[in-house]
Amino acid sequence: MTATRKGTAAQLAIGSMTHQGRVRTSNEDATAALLPPNIPNGCGGLMIVCDGMGGHQAGDYASNLAVNTVVSHLRNTPADALSPGRAAESLHAAAEAANAKVFGDSGTIERAGMGSTLTAAIISGPVLALAHVGDSRAYLLRDGELALLTTDHTWVADRVLKGALSREEAESHSKRNVLLRALGAGESVEIDSAMVQIQVGDVILLSSDGLHGPVSGADIASVLGALPPQQAAAELVERANAAGGPDNVTAVVAHVLSTEINDPNSDTETDPGATLADGGGFGPRLASAVRRLSHRG
Question: Is 79 exposed, middle or buried (0-12, 13-18, 19+ CB in 10 A)?
Answer without folding.
Answer: middle
